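Q: What structure does this chain adopt?
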Amino acid sequence: MTKSTYLKCLYKLNQYAKSLNIQVNLNSTCFKYDPQTHTITCDHKLKHQYAKFLSGYLHELGHAIQSQSIFSKLKKNKITLITIMIDQENDAWHNGKCIAHELSIWDDIQHVYKDEWVRNWYTYISTLPKLKVNELKALSTGYTHD
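A:
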């Protein structure tokens, strides 16, 4: 991806976020969406890996537009918390893909976006089951809308 294409895509994502009244910090140390402050942070260390940076940004925009997990009203035990988080993460990746199509930037980032989706999916399914319930509860705060 050229820098010019990256800047055009970044502009479209910023305009999209602005239309949703979402604040964006492009100079953070991680990718995250905070539903309480309606803020997306993006990992500045990836700014020169254009498609990866845009993929992370799109994924967080996917969180911003997603609805509550269909599992969020269930009793919060380890299996339910893992299910909620995986459900919400997958929805966010899917929503990001839909946003990319809507903004006509999918062709520019699709290969890296798909790779990131798979890499992160593997991380979710390999890491989450190893966590204790209290760790899962701490991680799931943004997913369960409690």
